[in-house]
């Protein structure tokens, strides 16, 4: 079975597991006041070249919930895409802490100033929620990415309108490897972002980076209040210590994208169409329903949605553990199906 | 430096780390639908001899928050001890999801039917919250434990009054090793309990066991809603797969208690007094303030509270990694201080 | 100035004010356990011919917040129209208590089984909220109404799918007077509905009617928990005692609709177009921007939205205090504008 | 039946009902932007001699919920007395919006800087809630009052510790009439207070006064978000327009206290003991259980609590409608019981 189901199916990058083993005899201070945490924070700050506040949480939904709920007042809302993770796939975690998600329907999963402007024009008095934060994902849920120019423009718009710009980086490694956006840009052109660990080689963990430091006031209280503080904080930091030292994180993104490109290029050559052109580690080819059945015998992937009565979009995801050889094998399988 | 500061300072029991390494090449299904999860659930069900619903969450506060908030209606409250973790040390996580903690001030940190009865008598109409759950910790925050008889009595009382009995087992290994309570008793005499992993050798993780299965309805939705679902669910289950196979969990508790007993007996022989008589892995000796200063040079521990102007209670905690040799060394340090 | 701005601009129907004065020397029991409350409940139960649970709250947003939050579990969501009051005009009150509003974009502001079915098909696992309640407004926010057949069909669909059907009756008097829906139908074909007092002659007050009585369990606790319980409960009940005795409520709806019809018919004769054909007390004519300016000098109304660059939709609302004479005067004003 | 059960049993002061009638033909702007609201605000600002932000809400629990939840961040807590209304009698409304109430057990129901200091010393890190607001009631729930000096001292302490001081004035008329505290003092020595209408002659209504004006930012959004905004805002303002013009409010307090004093002095002369010495409109005499039964035949009052096996504390409350004659009649009843 060739595995393209998702990027969170194997425990962790071997270097991270080795690090765990290496540190097994240590006695660490609890609650994120340990040396691993400090080191991981240092590496990240060096990359973004800013003294941002940095915290290590466990998963993506938790991170979105803690960040958004900590920074908004009760009646304030967050603007996102219709496909945004907070809008669709968090079982109402943001509303659960009291905040409305206002969504905009964008085909490419990306927000621009015009989208937000439209929302602001519709929310003008105290009988409606007050938009206060803009949530974007990079890469988006459908594999697209923002350019540096796009992020900069969004950020400047948000500053002007007194909105916070928050970037969900669950798949940030892949996004950065597919665009001109640098760590420094993320430090300069977002108020808050998170560096996804779970989907980029960590056994768990997301690193929240708060660039607008006044928003970090008492953030540790918030982390605990929302049930997100680990007694063994160092366990959440170690993956980032490994990923951020040198450039393992970025190189995982590069490798994932490279595998995805092999798949995408190969499928195109065979004649397969795509729902969207992706530059990242998620690609969305379209197959006939009967082809899907054959594919499923040899490969593991997710059915994304019906394209029409006869065709279906599937999602293929590459991960740190995907090999080029697996990609070639997959292409062979498709070729064979297409030849019959 | 001899380390008695807490039981969550080293990464994990070596057998757990070995297991992680052993499984590093696997591709697992996400969100807790994997084989490790199923196996860990199976081991636990075999121990409690009940088909209870079992879920693996990350930390104690998160677990308390998810369990309590999932099971209570908005106006319902939870009864606990004044020293209860939810009352004191969760930064309002329970209130944060809307529920009042009603506390009873008990010197030994343990609740009995009479305590709850008093609370019920005071909460009689719709102008007050409605008590619906009883929260106990075993071991308690001050190291005491419940006997089987006590738990049974509490449980029967709760059933009669239509209250849920929920046991926080952050330090359950130590509690079980110090009492006559078996896994089967926990299955029979609580509605919900959790088996603490973080403080008993896991790198993280708490196993929620819902014995009254109707309370488990849609609990997976709740887990996600409160930001507590892991994409890599298997990462939270693996520690329990290791701890619950054979009897590693219980034997860790035994070992911890044994070390604590060496400390306690040794200190008593030297003439040290205690805040409370503990049978578990937390002990609470009382020292003069100037002695504390000397102790701190060679040992790491927590100052619990002022006993009076001149004396101070400290907390010593043993863990899976504590050795008898460390205990003896500590006693020597104290002896030397006392001899001067 | 002729006043069509809204239906909540004058204090109360004279019969209600007379009743207040008449009862001024009474000593009543507090918190909704008084004779006025009992009488108002009795009148309503007689009309719906069911022993439903009935409560008197203060305003519409509060009522929606209390009803929805009391009946849903944390991860459950409510389905509504894009124009629904809870979606647009409650400053996130529903999300504020933890629940997502899932909206459907319907031109006429009305939901049908097909709409809900689409939502259910998209919400299938624990990574998404679980739809549990359907919220409809009758009359809708744009003046349309449900027929008996439509409500029955919706209700039967909801029962089949195990959803609650909740009707917001802020403008129920007008809706009933414009359709074949009777009180009995509301008792039979909704799980919960509220009878709006504020916009139908009361100085305040909405009567919540819970037909599916198991949903009323501990509803008094919920009312208090959400800050909605009045010490002087009788003050909220008295308007309903007056409105529901005989048939004042319905006759106010009739009168409002009649005035609205005079306006609508008259405007049509003059050649004015409408955004939507309304049968109730809200009508939505379309005027040129320069006409609006002239109208505003003599009449008070709300600008609803831009129709296009040159034309604008306004809203005219009739109330219990609107007179036919005012309607004729308004038509004369428009006529004069049109003649120039 | 002589009525001393509470101060919210009759509809409203006749002058308020007259005002309602007088204004019955008006057309007012909605949502608190009307002339009655402006006038009531003006009268209050004149009394406190400060340009404070002023809002009119419906009831006490609602007011506490909106004020506290609007001003605290998620992890922040409010300090109160064990007898505080928010702690005991609001069905968890404060916790329902996410905030812990930390209570201090004071016999007289009053907080002083020392009490708060003790709480602050116990709440020192991010594992516990962060105290941010001090809630006091004046008069307290057991009829005691604060002096100007006490309030000033509390306020200065709170300023120093960066805490908000919030005064619940459900029975403020009676409190002011029993102490040296002026409106100006309330403006100077609280951050927020509310002037209770419901228990001082209004048919409903509490006037929130925010002296520290930065706390009023977007308070209108909060009011709506928590379901507390009235379409007919003028209905909540009119009672204050009447009460605050000239000095009706204060004179009601004087009258109530005078009646309570007649009762208290008279009972003392008969030989009755009291739970607490009250200067306000609530008094707490202690009777034998068998005497209670006789009293209940002719008078309506609340049984407060058991004093011991044989004796019981009752609460007598005077209101704007209590007459001296009723007090004398009550004393006669007691006298007769005592003589037998």
Summarize the structure.
4 copies of one chain form a homotetramer. Chain A is 44% helix and 18% strand. The first copy, chain A, has 340 residues and is of the alpha/beta class.
Task: Describe what this molecule looks like in 3D.
The structure is a homotetramer of 340-residue chains. Chain A has helices at residues 14-22, 35-48, 60-71, 85-88, 93-96, 113-122, 148-161, 172-177, 183-189, 219-225, 233-244, 248-270, 289-298, 324-339; strands at residues 2-3, 53-57, 76-81, 101-104, 130-137, 164-168, 192-196, 206-210, 273-274, 282-283, 285-288, 299-300, 302-306, 311-317. Chain A has 340 residues and is an alpha/beta fold. Chain A folds into 2 domains: 2-6 and 249-339, Aspartate Aminotransferase, domain 1 (Alpha-Beta Complex), CATH 3.90.1150; 14-246, 3-Layer(aba) Sandwich (Aspartate Aminotransferase, domain 2), CATH 3.40.640. In chain A, the strands form 3 sheets. The first copy, chain A, has a 7-stranded mixed sheet with strand order 2-8-7-6-5-3-4, with helices on both faces. In chain A, strands 9, 10, 11, 13 and 14 form a 5-stranded antiparallel sheet that branches. Chain A has a two-stranded parallel ribbon with strand order 1-12. In chain A, strand 13 (302-306) and strand 14 form a beta hairpin. In chain A, helix 2 (35-48) runs parallel beside helix 11 and helix 12 runs parallel beside helix 14 (324-339). The two termini of chain A are 21 Å apart. The mean pLDDT of chain A is 97. The interface between C and D is large, with 53 and 53 residues.
